[in-house]
Amino acid sequence: MSKKIKAIGFFVTAILVFAFACEPEMLYGTAKVAGSTPAGTNYEYGYSVCIDVTVDDQGKIIKVSDDEKNTEASIAADVIGAAASNKAYWKKYLSGKGFEKYKNLTIEDVKKMNVGFPGAPGVDAVGGATAASLAVKNAVLQALVLDASIKKLVNYKNPDNYKKGEQNKLEKIIKEGRAHLETLETYEEIEKALAELKQKLDALKTK
Q1: 78 or 137: which carries more pLDDT confidence?
Q2: Is 185 a domain residue?
Q3: Model confidence over 26-76: pLDDT tens digits?
Q4: CA 113 to CA 102: how far, in whole Å?
Q5: Is residue 33 located within the same domain as residue 134?
Q6: Domain extent at residue 91
Q7: 133 in the Ramachandran plot: left (φ > 0), alpha (ψ -120 to 50) or beta?
Q8: Which keywords, in A-to-Z order, does the entry hold (predicted)?
Q9: CA–CA separation, 129 and 117 (whole Å)
Q10: Distant-in-sequence, close-in-space partners of 201: CB < 8 Å, separation ≥ 6
């Protein structure tokens, strides 16, 4: 094989690797619609928002969507008998283009968004749909923080720095930790659990 053909082969491979690395990633987030000024933070409306969050290779949001209408399915399955009013509020959120507020934002940007609280809307809430606005923010954060936390957990330690016995412990903590992170409902719970997992990994003895 000539040097020219080899060079072309390496170039094509490099392009494919780069293209794959830059491929957008779709994450899934969900959060209960909750909160009421008179009833308190634990009041629930009987449904959850279920959204997709598409991010680029830098973790910046390309799009937030619910193209499969999973939120509407959650509303339809409502057990407290408020499906009609909940559907109206969700429709108001969608018509207010709430998803578009997240375009080009990072995790930290989303955390800083001021959607307020039901009964006391913030500047980033969709008018008349504050509970839905808060739930979408929480769902987006759950998706982003879970993805980032799993990546941090997996890459936190280099297995080569540990003896075989400690490597087995390392793998066990990561495997079980990842499974645990995926069960958590809020981004705050995920961040707290990640910190605890890091402490466990820090306690392992290196070579």
Answers
A1: 137
A2: yes
A3: 999 999 999 888 888 889 999 999 999 999 999 999 999 999 999 999 999
A4: 9
A5: yes
A6: 25-147
A7: alpha
A8: Coiled coil, Signal
A9: 10
A10: 156, 157, 170, 173, 174
Asked if the structure places residue 70 within a domain, the reply is yes
With 0.85 as the threshold, say if the pTM is over it.
yes
Average pLDDT, the chain: 90
For residue 2, is it within any domain? Answer: no
Structure tokens belonging to residue 17: 């690797």
**Helical (H) or strand (E) element with 147:** helix 130-155
Residue 41 and residue 137 in one domain: yes
Query: Does one domain contain both 42 and 112?
Result: yes
The tokens for 170 are 């390392």
Question: Do 166 and 139 sit in the same domain of this protein?
Answer: no
Total domains in the fold of the chain: 2
Q: How far is CA 8 from CA 15, 16, 125, in A?
A: 11, 12, 52
